[in-house]
Design a protein that fits this description.
mainly alpha; Leucine-rich Repeat Variant; 0% strand
Length: 186
């Protein structure tokens, strides 16, 4: 895809992320999540989603590299801070980032907004963190997570939430955070 068309398509998508219209913003988040899922090298997550056909042709051709994903993480962080109504979908979209690029923004957002998050947004954050921990990617971010006391405190608070789904997800996250680090056996 020619660079100018790629930039134009991404610029339109970013503009929709900043839209004051809830439905436009949510649809842009959905499209972005599909693009992120599709950009993973192994292709398994892309195939598992089954919604890739929902992307317009101009977005279907774009593969998002590390630099793109960093820019997306920054845009999603701004959106989460600015639009409380879209936080759950934005956390879900953030969860589609490569785990090595998603840890820092996720931890920062939970630290800044943890108690203010809706049950659904908190659930999406817990599910993403747990999946990233279980994926066993880069050990440096996993050790960062295990040492994040503020995150553990927030997960404990969520585990006592009145929402059973959130409570189960937070409890599962706590088990992963408090488990000894996994080592590679060769």
């Amino acid at each position: 895809m020619k660079r100018i068309y790629r930039q134009r398509a991404l610029k339109r998508l970013y503009a929709e992320l900043e839209s004051k219209d809830f439905d436009s913003r949510e649809y842009a988040l959905f499209q972005l999540a599909l693009m992120l899922r599709r950009s993973h090298a192994d292709g398994e997550r892309a195939a598992a989603g089954g919604y890739v056909d929902e992307l317009p042709r101009e977005l279907l051709r774009i593969r998002l590299g590390s630099a793109d994903q960093r820019a997306i993480a920054a845009a999603l962080s701004r959106l989460i801070m600015r639009y409380p109504a879209s936080r759950a979908t934005a956390f879900w979209t953030l969860s589609e980032l490569d785990s090595a690029l998603g840890w820092q923004p996720m931890i920062a957002l939970i630290g800044a907004l943890g108690a203010q998050l809706s049950h659904e947004a908190a659930y999406q954050a817990c599910a993403a963190l747990r999946r990233w921990l279980l994926d066993g990617g880069d050990p440096a971010p996993a050790s960062l997570l295990r040492n994040a006391q503020e995150l553990r405190q927030q997960a404990r608070a969520w585990s006592a939430a009145g929402d059973a789904r959130l409570a189960r997800s937070a409890q599962a996250l706590l088990l992963e955070l408090e488990a000894p680090p996994k080592t590679c056996q060769e």
